[in-house]
Design goal:
Number of strands of chain B: 12
CATH topology of the largest domain in chain B: Aspartate Aminotransferase, domain 2
Number of helices of chain B: 14
Number of domains of chain B: 2
Strand order of the largest sheet of chain B: 2-8-7-6-5-3-4
Shape of chain A: globular
Largest sheet of chain B: 7 strands, mixed
Helix content of chain A: 25-40%
CATH class of the largest domain in chain B: Alpha Beta
CATH topology of the largest domain in chain A: Aspartate Aminotransferase, domain 2
Strand content of chain A: 5-15%
Low-confidence stretches of chain A: 1-10, 405-418
Shape of chain B: globular
CATH architecture of the largest domain in chain B: 3-Layer(aba) Sandwich
Strand order of the largest sheet of chain A: 2-8-7-6-5-3-4
CATH architecture of the largest domain in chain A: 3-Layer(aba) Sandwich
Oligomer: heterodimer
CATH superfamily of the largest domain in chain A: Type I PLP-dependent aspartate aminotransferase-like (Major domain)
Largest interface: A-B, 75 and 73 residues
Order of helices and strands of chain A: EHHEHEHEHEHEEEHEEHEHHEH
Structural class of chain A: alpha/beta
Helix content of chain B: 40-55%
Number of strands of chain A: 12
Radius of gyration of chain B: 21 Å
Mean pLDDT of chain B: 93
Strand content of chain B: 5-15%
Chain lengths: 418, 375
């Protein structure tokens, strides 16, 4: 074997570089700092209205709710805290469907039809499938080869029985951003609810529930530098969107989501939203620059590299790449110094090719050769350069080519911590 | 600042230091427990270790632990996910059980709040569709402990499943799923010194559950959503600490009993609800006749003593407690009952503080009532 094809020495005692920001993000230290007192000093049950411990906790939750709302130009009363985006998506679809079934219109047809995309996150598809078993009709629209949806196709799918359209704002695997304002306008003009799963988009790109005419928006904490175990659902007040709760009980969150609110987690999400609002303007161009740098370094060195998903309408930190003649699991194994994934985390343990990439029309061997790279707030230029080098070397080694270093002659500075 | 005494532990307990440390460690790491790479695998290991720790609290198999967002969701998953056509719930259950299914049938309780076992048997004989019986281990408002092993025996004799909401009992009294005889057990972290936002449903082997939150297939497809790793780690540390420190509650029980004796010596007309039956060691429901619970909690809060008028989730609502009503209490008594709940760090000074404030309030109202009578 050629000496040049030997792997570069691993960074000793260092965690791999984290390029899986779509799976989860680290908690921003500022969000963590805001949360900690609510674990220890202000531990009261926020629903205890009889004493100051409860009042302090509830005041912090309401401040957080306002921050979560402000980032998407919503009213704080439109925000319901949940355990995460999976629950929010389930609440949006099932809650709207169950309310419509329980309150059929006096005249006119029953609203028992839902339109969504074949490439939605599993939790939207599973919630829709559960509704199908209950007798609702669901249309799963295909997407274009670039991952974007067709507005004409959506317009044609909406009928007088359609209750709700659910389209993901930014895709978890391929990063594409759907035309939200256009979808919102179409849905509003046809009298149909518009739900968007914004788990990946919230805090990453500008979102405006008014301008985009969004009726329901799912939000995740741990994708936006807040902790896991918390999320939110935005539910429009004017015109009012009505849902039946998934979880009933003490009547918290205006009866839409019972259960003691986790004060520290809500505070973390609020702080993360405020940070995103303040820093998005700088973060977006920085991530775009880093992503382009990573992509150019890989394209220059690895023949046959293919970018999946529209190159323009995509999340700033997201890349999904197919490597010719290399399977994704092989590449991940051959490149232990970079934490990356084959697709969505929840299904990444499965070996079958991503249903999302199949929907783009990719043959199985190309889909099987796809890697998702996610950059985020704490990704540095040095990390991106190191990762490009490590991934390219591993890919070339697996393709049986010598790892010509090309322009990347200077060894990148090695960060000492992940 | 003047002295503050927190006596509302059944609403939520302070975080145990061991849980705080575990949460801090988990928050410092990033990784989705479903990711294949090593950060993901490290997260997975934490989750699975935590599953063992929580399982140990109730003597269950680790595979049987389904992490959920809290006690309310655990109760919902048990009742909605069991797939049983019929659900029987005791009349004193938490709202998250009572409201989970509109079709749930109530099982009455006696004056002490104990579920009517004979009636349960009759209900099961009268209708033989597959049923689930849900009876809590201990009540959140009164602390009264149910004869759960008997409930299990009767339920199983009629081929019904038995779900036990052990949210208030876990960490305060010994719990073993085999001793309880339950098929499903609900747990909440923040009642035993873990963080809010995390709980578990314990599922006995062989029981199929339909999920209520669907998606990526986490928790063996019983509860989708990225695992709440810091919450899970904090829950596990608190569960482990609580299990090892159950003896703390011997001291708590002594304090609680002293408090009740002192209350009755100050006010012979006061009532201790459920005082004659088996209760949690930390809970006391006390009626001060003639003074509304709301007046009491506000007056006590002004003095720096934090108690509640009932369950926290409904403590802001008006209307008497459904628990006390089901026990046959008059609206007058129910409306004048407060809940005092203690925990592992409660001190004698906290109780002296409560007794001073409570006695002052009692004497103020007694004086006013006497003056009114004299006038």
């Amino acid at each position: 074997m050629n000496d040049m094809s030997q792997p570069k020495p691993e960074r000793p005692n260092a965690l791999p570089i984290y390029l899986d920001y779509q799976a989860s993000t680290p908690v921003d230290p500022r969000a963590l700092e805001a949360m900690l007192p609510y674990f220890t000093e202000h531990y009261g049950n926020p629903h205890s209205e009889s004493h100051v411990y409860g009042h302090n906790a509830m005041a912090a939750i309401e401040a957080a709710r306002a921050d979560v709302a402000r980032l998407i130009h919503a009213d704080p009363r439109e925000i319901v805290f949940t355990s995460g985006a999976t629950e929010s998506n389930n609440l949006a679809l099932k809650g709207a469907a169950h309310f419509a079934r329980a309150h059929p219109p006096a005249n006119g047809p029953l609203r028992d039809h839902i339109v969504t995309l074949a490439t939605e996150h599993k939790c939207v598809l599973e919630a829709a499938a559960a509704l199908e078993r209950e007798g609702f009709a669901v249309t799963y629209l295909p997407v274009e080869p670039n991952g974007l949806m067709s507005l004409d196709r959506l317009a044609a799918a909406i009928t007088e029985r359609t209750l709700l359209v659910s389209v993901m704002a930014a895709h978890n695997e391929i990063g594409v951003i759907q035309p939200l304002a256009e979808i919102g306008a179409l849905c509003r003009s046809r009298g149909v609810l518009f739900h968007t799963d914004a788990a990946q988009a919230y805090g990453k790109i500008p979102l405006d529930v008014e301008a985009m005419k969004i009726d329901l928006m799912s939000i995740s904490g741990h994708k936006v530098y807040a902790p896991k175990g918390v999320g939110a659902l935005h539910i429009r007040r004017r015109p009012r969107v009505r849902l039946l709760p998934l979880i009933d009980g003490g009547g918290q969150e205006r009866g839409l989501r019972s259960g003691t609110l986790p004060t520290p987690l809500c505070v973390g999400l609020g702080r993360a939203a405020a940070i995103a609002a303040a820093e998005m303007g700088e973060e977006v161009p920085r991530l775009l620059r880093l992503r382009e740098r990573l992509y150019r370094n890989l394209v220059r060195r690895v023949p046959g590299l293919r970018l999946n998903g529209d190159p323009e309408h995509r999340l700033p930190g997201s890349l999904n790449l197919s490597f010719s003649g290399v399977t994704a699991p092989e590449l991940i194994e051959a490149c232990p110094s970079v934490a990356m994934s084959t697709g969505s985390a929840c299904t990444s343990a499965a070996v079958e090719p991503s249903y999302v990439l199949r929907e783009l029309g990719l043959p199985d061997d190309v889909a099987n050769a796809s890697i998702r790279l996610g950059l985020g707030r704490f990704t540095t230029e040095a990390e991106v350069d190191f990762a490009a080098d490590a991934i390219a070397s591993a890919a070339l080694r697996l393709q049986g080519r010598p790892a010509a270093d090309g322009e990347v002659t200077k060894a990148p500075a090695i960060p000492t911590s992940g | 600042m003047s002295r503050q005494s927190y006596l509302d532990w059944n609403a939520t307990a302070p975080l145990r230091p061991q849980a705080a440390a575990a949460i801090g460690a988990a928050l410092a790491e990033c990784g989705n427990a479903s990711s294949v790479h090593r950060w993901g695998r490290a997260a997975r290991q934490r989750v699975e270790r935590a599953r063992e720790q929580v399982a140990a609290l109730v003597g269950a198999a680790p595979d049987g632990i389904v992490f959920v967002s809290g006690g309310t969701e655990a109760n919902h998953l048990a009742l909605l996910g069991s797939g049983c056509e019929r659900v029987l719930v005791s009349a004193v259950e938490h709202h998250s059980v009572l409201h989970a299914l509109p079709s749930a049938e109530p099982i009455p309780v006696d004056r002490d709040g104990i579920v009517d076992l004979a009636r349960l048997g009759e209900l099961l004989v009268a209708d033989t569709r597959p049923a689930l019986v849900s009876v809590m281990f201990a009540n959140n408002e009164t602390g009264v402990i149910q004869p759960v092993a008997e409930v299990a025996r009767i339920a199983h004799a009629h081929r019904a499943l038995f779900h036990c909401d052990a949210v208030q009992a876990a960490g305060k009294v010994p719990l073993a799923i085999d001793v309880i005889g339950a098929d499903l057990v609900s747990l909440s972290a923040h009642k035993l010194g873990g963080p809010p936002g995390i709980g578990a449903l314990v599922v006995r082997e062989g029981i199929e559950l339909q999920p209520i939150v669907r998606g990526g297939g986490q928790e063996r497809s019983r509860r989708a959503g990225s695992e709440n790793l810091p919450g899970i780690a904090g829950f596990a540390a608190a569960a482990e600490t609580a299990a090892a420190a159950l003896a703390e509650y011997n001291r708590v029980r002594r304090l609680r009993d002293e408090l009740e004796a002192a209350v009755l010596s100050i006010a012979p007309d006061a009532l201790v609800i459920g005082g004659d039956v088996l209760r949690l060691p930390n809970t006391s429901a006390i009626a001060m006749p003639g003074v509304s619970a709301e007046t009491q909690v506000i007056a006590l809060d002004l003095d720096g003593v934090m108690v509640s008028a009932g369950a926290a989730c409904s403590s802001g609502k008006v209307g008497p407690s459904h628990v006390l009503a089901a026990m046959g209490m008059s609206p007058e008594i129910a409306g004048s009952t407060i809940r005092v709940s203690l925990g592992w760090s409660t001190t004698e000074a906290d109780l002296a503080h409560f007794l001073d404030a409570w006695a002052a309030l009692y004497r103020r109202h007694r004086g006013r009532a006497n003056a009114a009578r004299a006038a």
